[in-house]
Amino acid sequence: MTLNHNLPGSLQPFAQKLQAVRKAESAPISSLAASLVPETKEAAYAVQNFVASSMGPVKGWKVGASDALAEPSAAPLHGETLFSDGAVIAADFFRHRGVEVEFAYRFDRAVGADITRETVLAAVGSVHPAIEIVDTRFAQPASQAPLAHMADQQSHGALILGPAFTDWTAFDPSHEHFVMRVDHRRVSEQVGGNAAGDLSRLLVWLAGHAAARGMPIEAGTVVTTGSLSGAFFVPHRTHVNVRFYTLGEVSVFLA
C-alpha cells in the first residue's frame, strides 16, 4: 500500500514528535501547544499518514463511530501490532495497557475500484473475537484534544485476533453476548454494546476512506470496529480473556 504522507509544515513538528516517541528517541509527550493540535479530521489523518510511512506495511485498520449516524473515523494498523489468540506481549511493548472487547473482520479479497456496499461486503471472509490494547504516545491517555489523539493512531497499541467465524453474514453483533475476565475476574459482561450500530456501515465507509488515502483494502486486511466494553487499564503481568457465546474465545497475556 502506498501512503500519501504530504503534510502541511504546521503539522510537521507534531508528527515528528510522535515518530520520535515511537522510536524511543524521545519521552512521551506531556503537553502539546495549541498551535500543533490538528484542527480538522483531515489534518489528523495527514499526521497519521506521515507517521505510518515509517512503520512498515499497513495490514489493518481500526474504525468506529460515536453513534449510528455519526461519520466514522479510522486509523491504519501495522503488522507489528497485530497478534494471534494466546499471544504473550512483552512488557516494554506498551506504556499503557487499556483492554477493550471488539469485533474484527478479515477481508479475504481486495476491494477494487468499484466500491459499493455489495462489493465491499462480498470481499469480507470472516468475523473474529478481538481484544484491542489502548496505548498512546502521550504521557497519559485521554489527556489531549480529541483530534490530537486521533492523529496518534487513535490511541492504538495492539490488536489480538481470535478464531475466524466464516458464517459472518448470519452473525448479529448487536445480540452477541460476551464476558471479559482480567486475571480470571469478571470485569465486563453484556450483549452487543457497539455505539456505531450497523457494523457493515463502518466496513463500507472504510473501504472508500482507505482508497481515498491511497491505502485500498487488500486481501488479508483486518478491520476492528470499535469498543464494546470501554477500556480497562491493567498492570503488567495480566491475563485477559474474552468469551463470546457465538464467536468463541480470545486471550492475551500482557507481560
UniProtKB/TrEMBL annotation:
Pfam families: FAA_hydrolase. InterPro entries: Fumarylacetoacetase-like_C, Fumarylacetoacetase_C_sf, Hydratase-Decarb/MhpD_sf. Keywords: Lyase. Residues 88-250 form the Fumarylacetoacetase-like C-terminal domain. PANTHER family: 2-KETO-4-PENTENOATE HYDRATASE (PTHR30143:SF0), ACID HYDRATASE (PTHR30143). This is 2-keto-4-pentenoate hydratase. It comes from Acetobacter conturbans. The lineage of its organism: Bacteria, Pseudomonadati, Pseudomonadota, Alphaproteobacteria, Acetobacterales.
